[in-house]
Amino acid sequence: MFTRSSDKALSDQQARRRVASAMLVGTTLEWYDFFLYGTAAALIFNKQFFPSLSPAAGTLAAFSTFAVGFVARPLGGLVFGHFGDRVGRRNTLIVSLLMMGAASTLIGVVPNYGSIGVWAPVLLVLLRVVQGLGLGGEGAGATLMSMEHAPAGKRNLYAGFPQMGTPAGLVLANVVFLTTNAVMPSGAFDAWGWRIPFLLSAVLVVIGLVIRLHVEESPSFSRVVSHRAVERFPLREAMRVGVGRMALTLGVMIANSAVAYVFMVFTLSYGTEHLDYSRSFLIVCVSVAAVIWFATIPFWTRIADRSGRRSMFVGGSVALLIWCLVFLPMLGTGSAVITAAAFLGMGVIVPITHSVQGAIIADTFPAAVRYSGTSLILQVGAILGGGLAPIISSALVGESGGAAGVTAYLAVVCLLSLVCAVVLFARVPEPEPAAAAAAEGATV
């Protein structure tokens, strides 16, 4: 027979699981929208919105519109971070989901260049900005909402659930894109069928909203409110952790973002235009790798909770450096088997560091200013890493005709992140998992 305490424990456990599930579903839908644009930018938008340019220049222009979303993300992070620290995590996450879904749906109805001329890419860029603003508020908020509901000793595990939304959104976007392409007549998909996955966002955002409306506010923010510790200018207070620590934390996350966007987005255009792989083959390879990425995040976060994330993150950074040295050369062999193995390796290695980077960044800041500080680091890192990676990679290939420059670029970025991780972990002791929640309650 259950006692009142056991009933409450069961209720708390169910509430935590509901929050973790809601954050996973919400981030999956937001990343679906974001990655859908990336896939379309790699394969479709150069023909639809930049037909007067050469194939190489059109691809570069399409990737530039993809990067615009990253430029908008820090602004979204600052705005949503400010209100997330002042009025709560839950409501800001609902607004970010609405913005992302509305922008993606409207991209599905934007006329192409042949219909309205230069206004077509202008509208595309404007909607991409809205996408970036929405995702800028999502990344940090979902991680905090989940982590701040976590029981003692499971902060990395719970912070990892929103991280799972990245590969899940990628898989969903690629599956919908690939399926739509497969069932349509030849040429119809490139002409207008690519719009269907974007229009599907309207349905998906409704599902996400229904789920998110049934979660409770973060306990950490509730304690901030009850202690009357809400900051008037949370970003200013967040900066008090020090420029040095923030710069090191920023450096830690750049490599994972850069490598991930090269393997998820850049390889789609590079593989089809320079290596003669089929579009479907590359999308399947990326999707299978993302499934592995998704499935292994709980494994890595549990290890981080049990054994500490320091050695795991440094080891993962070394593995990422090694694999980025062989990844593009493996694609360049022309062997489908070796290429598939290269993508599978990415699916295994990328989640080691990605699974805990959200928790590492969030633990840099106290609860009262955590949304603002975490958003700033995440979104600036996303620009320097993922936002620039496809553009830089395309430019390097266009200059040399090969991928050696891209490999060197990734190696430098990975080495930089590895050095930052070693220095950061040497300077900042890792908190004991069981003590983190108690310490948080005392510092609001």
Entry summary:
This protein has one domain: Growth Hormone, Chain: A (Up-down Bundle), CATH 1.20.1250.20. It is built from 20 helices and no strands.
Describe this structure in words.
This protein has 444 residues and is mainly α. It has a single domain (16-216, 225-429), classed as Up-down Bundle (Growth Hormone, Chain: A), CATH 1.20.1250.20. It is 83% helix and 0% strand. The chain is built from 20 helices and no strands. The radius of gyration is 21 Å and the shape is globular. The mean pLDDT is 85.
User: What number of domains?
Assistant: 1
Q: Could you tell me the strand content as a percent range?
A: under 5%
What is the name of the CATH class? Mainly Alpha
How confident is the prediction overall: mean pLDDT? Answer: 85
Structural class: mainly alpha
Q: How many distinct beta strands? A: 0
Q: Indicate the low-confidence ranges by residue numbers.
A: none
CATH superfamily: MFS general substrate transporter like domains
Q: Do you know the CATH architecture?
A: Up-down Bundle
Number of helices: 20
Function: May be a proton symporter involved in the uptake of osmolytes such as proline and glycine betaine.
Organism: Gordonia sihwensis NBRC 108236
Subcellular location: Cell membrane
Transmembrane segments: 21-45, 57-80, 92-110, 116-136, 157-180, 192-213, 246-268, 280-300, 312-331, 337-356, 376-397, 403-426
